[in-house]
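Each field is set out as follows.
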Amino acid sequence: GLPALDEIDRLKNEDYYALCTNFNLPINKTKIMVGYNANLAHQQLKVIDKVAELNIEVLDNIHLVFPLAYGGNSKELIKVALDQNKNIKYTILDQFYDFHEIAKLRSVIDILINIQPTDQFSGSMQETLYAGGWVLAGSWLPYQQLTELTSKLILIDSVDDVAEKLNAMVVNGCKKSEDNNELVRNFIKKSSSWKENIPIWDDILFPNEVG
């Protein structure tokens, strides 16, 4: 179960300015999270190279977010790559957040880039979609089922396609919203909320108990 889902529901009427300020993120930029931990399998360095190809008008309207609290010691490598591209504005989050804070973060992120080589069914990806955000993901990941439920999951066939697709998403105003979100929210709630999963785990752990 993903406890952040219930927290995201509770934050629906929370002040957006306060949520952004909580992470020192800009209010009026498209906020793009690159991966969801520090493991370089999330291809942060490749994403930085591709984002650097965007024209200055697009770069002026986006802000990259790198959650690096766990998963490896890549912070300095990523920071060096970012500092070599002065037109990229970014925030590095190196604090470990509980699910209350994760829910706040999901509630302000517009786009999650998830292009790691392999994945099961990322909780971060589900939480981003549940909160109304967009996901740019590799078509090689097992997310095809969700494309039938939402237009906010955009798939690419190669890491080299990041710049072109991200450019189109920013130009087309792909920002977090409640629009056309009901089907995917219901699917994620049913498959991943604690409310739905507790009875299943109860049956697995205590199969012979009654009542």
User: Anything to note?
Assistant: The CA atoms of residues 156 and 165 lie 8 Å apart. The longest strand covers residues 62-67. Strands lie at 30-34, 62-67, 90-93, 111-114, 134-138, 153-156. The first helix runs from residue 4 to 10.
